[in-house]
Amino acid sequence: MKILIANSSPDPIYEQIARQVKSQIISGDLPEGTSLPSIRRLAQELQISVITTKRAYEELEKEGFIDSVGGKGTFVAAQNADFLREKRMKVVEERLAQAVDEARTLGIGCDQLSEMLRLLCGEES
Amino acid sequence: MTDYALEVTGLCKSYRGFALRDVSFRLPRGYIMGLIGPNGAGKTTVIKLIMNLVRRHSGEVKVFGLDNRAAGREIRSRIGFVYDFPCFHEDASLDDHRRVIAPFYPRWSEEAFERLLREFELPRDKKFKALSHGMQTKFALVLALSHDADLLVLDEPTAGLDPVFRRELLQRLSALLQDEGKSVLFSTHITTDLERVADFVTFIRNGEIAFSLPKDHLLETWGIVRGDERAVAALDGETRKGLRRSPYGVEVLTSNVDEARRRSGPGVVVDRPSLEDIMVLMTGEGNRAR
Fold it and tell me: Which residues of B touch A3 (CB under 8 A)?
């Protein structure tokens, strides 16, 4: 499991952790049944607070990515591949919707926005 | 039901020219709490009252669920402390200190003591006064960590320490918390020490608790809004926690950044506050009257 925390990121640390673990589960880097470090171990290793790692795990558990088995630890839960992809697509959609909203308040039209998107995707216009 | 390592309720104490008023906060077992505040705000007085070293006027302190006056002896044997005020014998060697101190602790570990002295590179036959300030603090830490304490009470432990050792200290604290039964209360004005590892932050200002909150909640819901006078005019009331004016604009600290975003006028910038920002903005001018 790889976790990189950016202190300068506007996203809360628990979200950064949850997101990175999620994407490693989705990509298959963390297969079903993989044992994750305990909340306290992870807090120590990342030098962050226990409440933060606890919240990240709660988030992941709520969304069905991990299971905690009382007394045994925390494990990557069984995942359905189609379901996972769909979940990720939804995230992309949500982010795009946010960008569209933001653009609207600035008066940026659809054309200009698609232009920006193409540039971001690395395509020359 | 939450199990608390420390419960402080309605603590009052006054000295000439200084008063601690109705101080209350709770530290759940298994977590780290940072006690922050400017010099003279009352951090050390709170700690002395927790350790029952000075008399209070009113209020209650429970440690491990026990009253700290009725069960003072048991409580003290389960607390590891580092004080910000001198409590060592200048002319005694480190080993002399061990001989005097160890018998007070039923769970004293000779092995832990030896290991920590080695790790902190402290010579046991040296006199206390021959140690540098940083080494003296390290020695206080060695003692605090040598008897399997359930609660560590550290008063400005990082003052006078270099960043490398400060980081090491924080690592030791989180290593200690691998045991869910251990808790830490840590006073400091070097707020960056707490930014990462603290679970709770209690801010004491002019002898009163300004807030005692989970750190994540604080850093996620509070914000700093900067703009001109008109744009931040609507940001008043309960959620405004601090204000600073400069010739170029106004800075408002808010405890509800989402609401502040909605209510502020055009042209403002919104920032996440650090603990230091919070401390400075809540103590600066413009807040005295509140």
Answer: none
